[in-house]
């Protein structure tokens, strides 16, 4: 399997499909999943002539289950290691949820300074800050994230069943069409990764203030968010975050859940393509 090795000797698994001369699109997955979460989008875009790349974050999927480095700085640096190894230029970077935070940190700290990024897309993304603080009173209280850590530590396998069965895809809503295979695939991806990486990743996605990252991003940016997102509430993320971006467009989706890229892929893929080609 293809891997690159980071400067601190972590082997990062990646996929690289399509013509090497085509414009690259790089996908950044959410917590606690893997690059497999982007299969629908990668197949869609490779069929439209793009080069598509996705990697498993350290401690996730097929990448090394290392003890350290489960924070946004390492996430972004690992992504840049993949970009440099594959020499991706003029790339589109798309991140979902925690992957949206990774994209924001990557573009601000690595992609723009190196001149390698063309556009950014944040989908159901966690920036600017999920945690409730004195400066961010609209955020979620620490007890919410402590509860996630407690559930993961007590019985990760059951927790990773309950989350996709319930609010992640909106399958707990009245009248929702439930896809058992989607739930099983979420569980499969989660259980491939490291419990320690997932436990510490909760702090990374909830407590990292990315206000300055967003302010620094000058490339055209699209923020897509479901209005019924129960994992990353739109008011705590997109509504505030898009105001910090100098060159951004916000597109919201009434009734769509956090995992809309999977359960509403037909709509989302068309909108992604329109922005990328625009």
From TrEMBL:
InterPro entries listed in its UniProt record: AB_hydrolase, AB_hydrolase_1, AB_hydrolase_fold, Epox_hydrolase-like
Protein name, UniProt field: Non-heme chloroperoxidase
Domain of life: Bacteria
Family, as annotated: Belongs to the AB hydrolase superfamily. Bacterial non-heme haloperoxidase / perhydrolase family.
Top EC class, one word: oxidoreductase
Enzyme Commission (EC) number: 1.11.1.10
Native species: Pigmentiphaga litoralis
Entry keyword annotation includes GTP-binding: no
Keywords in alphabetical order: Oxidoreductase, Peroxidase
A single GO molecular function term of this UniProt record: chloride peroxidase activity
């Amino acid at each position: 399997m293809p891997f690159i090795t980071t400067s601190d000797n972590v082997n990062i698994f990646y996929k690289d499909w399509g013509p090497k001369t085509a414009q690259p699109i790089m996908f950044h997955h959410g917590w606690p999943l893997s690059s497999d979460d982007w299969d629908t989008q990668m197949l869609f875009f490779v069929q439209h002539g793009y080069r598509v790349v996705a990697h498993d974050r350290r401690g996730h999927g097929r990448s090394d289950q290392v003890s350290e480095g489960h924070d946004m700085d390492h996430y972004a640096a690992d992504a840049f290691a993949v970009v440099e190894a594959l020499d991706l230029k003029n790339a589109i970077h798309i991140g979902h949820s925690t992957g949206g935070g990774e994209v924001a940190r990557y573009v601000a700290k690595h992609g723009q300074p190196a001149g390698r990024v063309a556009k950014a897309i944040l989908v159901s993304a966690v920036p600017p800050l999920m945690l409730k603080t004195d400066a961010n009173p609209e955020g979620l209280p620490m007890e919410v994230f402590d509860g996630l850590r407690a559930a993961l530590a007590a019985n990760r396998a059951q927790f990773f069943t309950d989350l996709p069965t319930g609010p992640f895809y909106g399958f707990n809503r009245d009248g929702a069409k439930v896809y058992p295979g989607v739930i099983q695939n979420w569980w499969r991806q989660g259980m491939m990764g490291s419990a320690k990486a997932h436990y510490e990743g909760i702090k990374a996605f909830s407590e990292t203030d990315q206000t300055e990252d967003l302010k620094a991003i000058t490339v055209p940016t699209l923020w897509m968010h479901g209005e019924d997102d129960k994992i990353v509430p739109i008011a705590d993320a997109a509504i505030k975050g898009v105001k910090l971006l100098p060159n951004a467009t916000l597109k919201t989706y009434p009734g769509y859940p956090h995992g809309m890229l999977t359960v509403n892929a037909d709509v989302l893929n068309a909108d992604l393509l329109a922005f990328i080609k625009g």
